[in-house]
Amino acid sequence: MEHEILIVDDEPDIRFLLEGVLEDEGYVTRGAGNSDEALAAFREGHPSLVILDIWLQNSKLDGIELLKIFKAENPGVPVVMISGHGTIETAVASLQHGAYDFIEKPFQSDRLLVVVRRALEDARLRRENAELRTRAGTEMTLMGNSALMQGVRSQIAKVAPTNSRVLISGGAGAGKEVAARMLHAQSKRADGPFVVLNCATLAPDHFEEELFGVEGRDGQPARRGLLERAHRGTLLLDEVADMPFETQGKIVRALQMRTFERVGGGTSVKVDVRVIASTSRDLQEEIAARRFREDLYYRLAVVPLTMPALRERAEDIPVLARYFLESCAKSAGLPDRELAVDALASLQTYDWPGNVRELRNLMERMLIMAPSLGNGQETIRVDMLPEVIRQGAPSMSRLTAEADVMSLPLREARDLFETQYLQVQLMRFGGNISRTANFVGMERSALHRKLKQLGVTMEDRAALQAAGRTSASSSAAAPAEGKIPS
């Protein structure tokens, strides 16, 4: 990523010398000869680094005072102080107020370039660490072997390297933010910040202050908004349908002009930001109801991306469920537990209104709350699942551990077991007779006769086939190394 360096010095010759040295190394430079020019350049240009002279002739503010303002408004920008009349006291004072380093004039070019490179690298590492802390526990890769998820990942790979805006649609918990993070991570802006504005949780009265920032007044430093914090990176407008209608017009202009004004200010601020938006609502309906601006929709939906609901890719559930059990066990310091086949079958029949997030929460709850004989490693059976999960499963999946099978005659108990066992296996293989027969070790024709004998109807099998839940391959597949689900 191209770095812009702001050079603040009252001597034109020094500025010219520094510009030449830095531009030869591929940096973009901008000069300022006094404190007013320096403040304007800092607030408009968003430099990656500032080289600041301590003694500024004919300026309202000296270098130390400018340093305090710079660090208050944007503490992430490193400042290198320079001076031809420096003392130990001034050097210490500048470092105490947040300067990265202090260099005496006349300086050596090699020494300056080393300090600049180190300062930029230090700032990059600080941003990365802050981002890692922010997204700790956040999934970073969409998982699943279904055709739907393979299609989504393919779309992300195609659009990520471009600078196009993307509108991600899908239900709550379907993985929209994970998709946005993947777009950022695979883009040319991956080294820049990833900033999230949750439009659904922010009070309308504070929306514009949070987005655009607040101009400094009465000696107070300006407060940067999220648009400025996302400079050279990506801004996610999460649940964009909840953005106040009045603000929508201002964001349209900001997207078109790439400039905006802070609240209470009159100075244009220029930013370089890729905007990604997400929504769980139908924006066409919102437009028809005059709750969402049509011009904003077309600026955001340059590339539309739809996240499938979990119920539409039930074959991914075994891999996701096992991953969540494993990751939750590690984070909680608990023994890992397995899911029985009948439990997986029940999970695959549930509708999952909360999508992947609901599955993750359930797996964490089962890991902690499911009954255990003491060592915590017992298999999680279907009878341990909540009733709402079990109610759509075949009869064997609803058989509790307390069922009085032992009171039945041998033939009836055997028929009951075979019926329920074959129902679960049919569900496991999406109603596919050939694959079920192969797994249970029967000839296909023999399985047909057994199902007919046990009263498993064609309607039952047709319903399973219509669901298309081919979970066998997913059940056998293990998560790819380094992959984390949505």
Automatic annotation (TrEMBL):
UniProtKB keywords: Activator, ATP-binding, Nucleotide-binding, Phosphoprotein, Transcription, Transcription regulation, Two-component regulatory system
PROSITE patterns on file: RESPONSE_REGULATORY (PS50110), SIGMA54_INTERACT_3 (PS00688), SIGMA54_INTERACT_4 (PS50045)
CDD domains linked: AAA, REC_NtrX-like
4-aspartylphosphate: residues carrying this PTM: 53
Domain Response regulatory, chain residue ranges per copy: 4-120
Protein's GO biological process: phosphorelay signal transduction system; regulation of DNA-templated transcription
UniProt keyword Iron, yes or no: no
Low complexity composition bias: residue spans: 466-480
Gene Ontology molecular function: any one: ATP binding
UniProt superkingdom: Bacteria
Chain positions covered by the region annotation Disordered: 465-486
UniProt key word DNA-binding: no
Residues passing through the membrane, by range: none
SMART domains recorded: AAA, REC
Classification via InterPro entries: AAA+_ATPase, AAA_lid_NorR, CheY-like_superfamily, Homeodomain-like_sf, HTH_Fis, P-loop_NTPase, Sig_transdc_resp-reg_receiver, Sigma_54_int
Residue ranges of every copy of the Sigma-54 factor interaction domain listed in the record: 142-368
Name under which the protein is recorded: Sigma-54-dependent Fis family transcriptional regulator
Species, as recorded: Oecophyllibacter saccharovorans
